[in-house]
Amino acid sequence: KGEVEKAEAMESESQSEGVQDLFEAFKTGEGAELHHSFDECKQNVKREKVRQKKLVQAVNQIKARIDELQAVQELSEDAPDTLETETHSEIGTASKQRSGGDSSGKKESSELAAAKSKYKTVFAQLKQCREECASLERNKQVALAALLAAFELHSQT
Asked: Which residues of the chain have pLDDT under 70?
């Protein structure tokens, strides 16, 4: 019984390799245009996913900066006279700011408002990018289906 299963497995594997060889030949011959379209779709999806990853990182950085600015603002509201806090800019350099005066509070408030505005803009870009990724993924699936259908027709002839 074990020998029969081995023989069937070897035959199936041999057929799979034969089909793969036929498909490879099809992709470079009659199906070259469809294969090129599919490859192009794959590259577009990959490129957009890289962009999406960068936007996610940017959104997270901006959100961390907003949280930091809000914490500083809350601390300065609690102890406006002598509170000294350390904040970090987007590139990570530390700077000492003395909280307490009206000008310092206004600066923090305007910086917070600017960060929130930037967050909304980048988040909207991220949302649009996610939608584009989904659309490109659908296009890739359609291109793959067309390639496989053409190969199926080619194989039947």
From this structure: 1-15, 79-105
Q: Tell me the C-alpha to C-alpha distance, in Å, between residue 104 and each of 72, 77, 82, 112.
A: 11, 11, 12, 12
Which residue blocks in 29-156 are alpha helix, DSSP H? 32-78, 102-156
Handedness of CA 143, 145, 146, 147 (dihedral sign): positive
Q: Give the amino acid at 148.
A: L
Pairwise CA distance, residues 151 & 142, whole Å: 14
Strand partners, 85: 97
- Decide: helix, strand or coil at residue 48: helix
Distances (CA, A) of 58 to 4, 52, 73, 80, 129: 58, 10, 22, 32, 13
In which residue are the tokens 């600015």 written?
Answer: 69
Per-residue pLDDT tens for 29-70? Answer: 999 999 999 999 999 999 999 999 999 999 999 999 999 999
